[in-house]
Design goal:
Glyco_hydro_3_N; six-stranded mixed β-sheet; hydrolase; globular; single chain; binds beta-D-glucopyranose; 17% strand; Glyco_hydro_3_N_sf; Immunoglobulin-like; glycosidase; Rossmann fold; alpha/beta; EC 3.2.1.21; 811 residues
């Protein structure tokens, strides 16, 4: 590594500022005079999306083929740290071959609502699990000398208005739920980079949020890497730099580079802040340099095989009545549903991989059981967006001749798209009708699901078995076939709750909010934390997943019965495979504070371990719980606090199946700090079973009034006004029309394609400032200022600016 201080000393102010934005969509800027190279960063997270055309600002053009691993939902459902690390290693190898120095992922945002359009790219509703899986992913990638970009930091829990919405969150939920997973990953792996989220958090954009970046990420957690924006997330360049964000992506952002220069010259920005940023950028650029060898070639077969293994391990056997699964190879199977031949295996958006290969369930089942045993009918047209009675009837007829019917359904591509949230949890009508029609004539129906996040299952009681395959990547078909035929014993567990109905979900009344703010009124009661606290029925609980064998949990031993807040507790138990097949079990440890003064959910996951056991084999599992496992975040101390008292230790195979229980008494070494009122607001101490929280109660928790969430007619447009909200004047309406026309032109070919849907949603949600980003050399800041003046009916002034801007462009 060259002497970075020396380099900084040799750089001009302009060179320093220019390093703070990218060269184009995917590269950082070089400074040739000083031998500073340009490096490539690219998406992520479950494969490499290296665009063929680097400058295609549409951002979703063709990319080089790469292994498409199962998406994050499936990775998390493995609950297997070691396996996820292997995926990370494989991703790192692909990065090396393609000369990519930073992989843009993993995403560790919490699944606050099952509706978030990007949930397939995120791990869990639980921060501990999310953090542990993110950690493994990062350790794997970075072991190859390639960096990661942990994203989207933070509270980017929805797609609706993601570029402007203000996430209004109380301090405890922020630390205990939305940051805790990031914290694990940052503290334990030091990702090379962090990607700042688009949205605002409690009033301030995440990319210029000093509390989030300087205070929490750097000072509290000790992060010493680089922070970059999400693509197009920059709002105020100088404020962002001062808050701890170094790199603006994509670039170039000439106007912002110039702003930095100006701010240093005018004394507004301390040069030391810029030097610090340049140092961090250079450290990343040079850290990335020495890793490539000419013969870096990854093994495509090995990666495909790994992808298949992960797809199988990330599949969750939700139901297996009468032990209908695994299938006998000789059973005559009617395989119904187009997904069996045209798999749904990944989500749409920036993570879309151009797969090297693509397996499907039909062909993989044929390979295992022979074509004479597998009869196929599509059952619904294409991905099932419309219903076709003929296809349904044909499928039902085929089912009549079979021993067992396997129906492959799930969510079409257009249901899970970056930039858009779902509006409901329903499967397409054509999928549900297929299952119901088959169940009416056959009593051995197995449903196989391909989807990135929970769905409602109106037919749950009519079918014998349900295998949730998530989005299994390019080898997903093989992974599912392996599980169906018992070549792999399923061991996946849900990393999220499947509610019975959307309306049951704690975030339902407050998601996705808008137009300006989204209030996280449910606070800590996210996912199973809510369902367990209020004891509400669910379709399938968090942590649930069946096996073809059975396990017994025995002999719980806690290392202490009384524990000071300085000691750690070891939870010891024995798991025994009591069935006839080898299998794996995920032992889950939850805590349940018995009578806390500060409000707490009834259960919180604090440890887990996946164990492989031969038939009859028993193993001891040891899980250590440190101080933090018992702590809550005190708003008074602005730090973690452990309340003395009894904590129950619950060991189980899901949040609803607890097999062993013990209690530990926590004592304090010092006089415990009093619990402030904000941490014990009665509405949260007795959290309501309908999750309805009055504004006044939420404000008591926040410690301030909730911000305004309405758009007034007279409110002037700013650089942050979303295009969808342009209504201020004739000019505003015209501009909106232009954008809508553009969208229509793009949609002509295929209005339902996920790409079209995504671009439509994103363009309308995008704030005016993004026009600058995509305006290329046809638009500059002065012209933009002019346009905004005109939108706000200041036509003459605006026009003058527009003309000035045009002149600047020409010169
Ligand atoms: C996404 C990021 C992605 C980036 C680059 C953004 O729209 O939010 O996750 O890494 O684009 O493609």
């Amino acid at each position: 590594m060259p002497n970075i201080q020396q380099l900084i000393a040799e750089m001009t102010l302009e060179e320093k500022a220019s390093l703070c934005s990218g060269l184009n969509l995917w590269y950082t800027k070089p400074v040739e005079r000083l031998g500073i190279p340009s490096i490539m960063v690219t998406d992520g997270p479950h494969g490499l999306r290296k665009q063929v055309e680097v400058n295609d600002m549409g951002g979703l053009s063709e990319s080089y083929p790469a292994t498409c691993f199962p998406t994050a939902s499936a990775l998390a459902a493995t609950w297997d740290r070691e396996l996820v690390q292997q995926v990370g290693i494989a991703l790192g190898e692909e990065c090396r071959q393609e000369r990519v120095l930073v992989l843009l992922g993993p995403g560790a945002n919490i699944k606050r609502s099952p509706l978030c359009g990007r949930n397939f790219e995120y791990f869990s509703e639980d921060p501990f699990l999310s953090g542990e899986i993110a950690k493994s992913h990062i350790l794997g990638v970075q072991s190859q000398g390639v960096g990661t970009s942990l994203k989207h930091f933070a509270t980017n829990n929805q797609e609706y208005r993601r570029m402007t919405v203000d996430a209004v969150i109380d301090t405890r939920a922020l630390h205990e739920i939305y940051l805790a997973g990031f914290e694990i990953a940052v503290r334990e792996t030091q990702p090379w980079t962090i990607m700042g989220a688009y949205n605002r958090l409690n009033g301030t954009y995440c990319c210029e949020n000093p509390l989030l970046l300087n205070e929490i990420l750097r000072k509290r957690w000790g992060f010493h890497g680089l922070v970059m924006t999400d693509w197009g997330a920059m709002n105020a360049r100088v404020a962002a730099l001062e808050s701890g964000l170094e790199l603006e992506m994509p670039g170039p952002a000439d106007a912002n580079d110039a702003r930095i220069v100006e701010a240093v010259r005018s004394g507004e920005l301390d040069i030391a802040v810029l030097d610090q940023a340049v140092e961090r950028i250079l450290e990343m650029v040079f850290k990335a340099q020495p890793v490539f060898a000419e013969d870096d070639r990854f093994d495509q077969d090995a990666h495909h095989a790994l992808a298949r293994r992960v797809a199988a391990e990330g599949s969750v056997l939700l139901k297996n009545a009468g032990e209908i699964l695994p299938l006998e190879k000789t059973a005559r199977i009617a395989l119904l549903g187009s997904f069996a031949k045209q798999p749904r295996y990944q989500g749409a958006g920036s993570s879309l991989i151009n797969p090297l290969r693509l397996d499907n369930l039909h062909d993989e089942m044929v390979k295992i059981a022979g074509s004479e045993n597998i009869a196929y009918a599509p059952g619904y047209p294409g991905q099932g967006l419309i219903f076709d009675a003929n296809l349904l009837n044909e499928a039902v007829q085929l089912a009549q001749t079979a021993d067992i019917v396997v129906v492959h359904i799930g969510l079409p591509d257009s249901f899970e798209v970056e930039g858009m949230d779902r509006g409901h949890l329903k499967l397409p009508e054509s999928h549900n009708r297929l299952v119901e029609a088959v169940c009416a004539i056959h009593d051995k129906v197995v449903v196989v699901l391909s989807n990135g996040s929970p769905v409602e299952m109106p037919w749950v009681d009519q079918v014998e078995a349900i295998l949730e395959g998530y989005l299994g990547g390019q080898a997903g078909g093989g992974g599912l076939a392996d599980v169906l035929y018992g070549l792999v014993n399923p061991s996946g567990k849900l990393a999220e709750t499947f509610p019975l109905r959307l309306e049951d979900h704690p975030s339902h009344a407050y998601f996705p909010g808008g137009p300006k703010t989204v209030e996280y009124r449910e606070s800590l009661f996210v996912g199973y934390r809510f369902f367990e606290t209020v004891d509400k029925p669910v379709l399938f609980p968090f942590g649930h997943g069946l096996s073809y064998t059975t396990f017994a949990y025995e002999d719980l031993r806690l290392s202490h019965s009384t524990l000071t807040d300085q000691e750690t507790l070891t939870v010891r138990l024995t798991v025994r495979n009591t069935g006839a097949r080898a299998g794996k079990e995920v032992v889950q440890v939850y805590i349940n504070p018995e009578s806390p003064t500060a409000f707490r959910p009834k259960m919180e996951l604090k440890g887990f371990e996946k164990v492989a056991l031969q038939p009859g084999e028993a193993r001891e599992v040891n899980i250590t719980l440190g101080r933090r496992a018992f702590a809550h975040f005190s708003t008074a101390l602005n730090d973690w606090q452990v309340e003395p008292g009894n904590y129950r230790i619950l060991v189980g195979s899901s949040s609803r199946e607890i097999h062993l229980e013990g209690t530990v008494q926590l004592t304090a070494t010092q006089t415990p700090a009093p619990i402030p009122e904000r941490d014990r607001v009665p509405a949260y101490v007795n959290f309501p079973s309908d999750a309805r929280i009055a504004r006044a109660d939420f404000e008591a928790l926040l410690g301030r009034p909730t911000p305004n969430n309405t758009i007034s007619e007279r409110e002037p447009a700013t650089i942050n006004t979303p295009l969808a909200d342009l209504q201020h004047s004739f000019v505003a309406r015209q501009l909106k029309k232009v954008v809508q026309k553009e969208i229509e032109a793009m949609s002509e070919d295929n209005p339902d394609s996920p790409n079209t849907l995504m671009i439509t949603a994103m363009m309308l949600d995008a704030p005016l400032r993004t026009i600058l980003m995509f305006g290329g050399d046809k638009l500059n800041q002065t012209m933009m200022d002019g346009l905004i003046l005109m939108i706000n009916r200041r036509f003459i002034k605006g026009l003058i600016k527009l003309v000035q801007g045009q002149k600047q462009l020409k010169s």
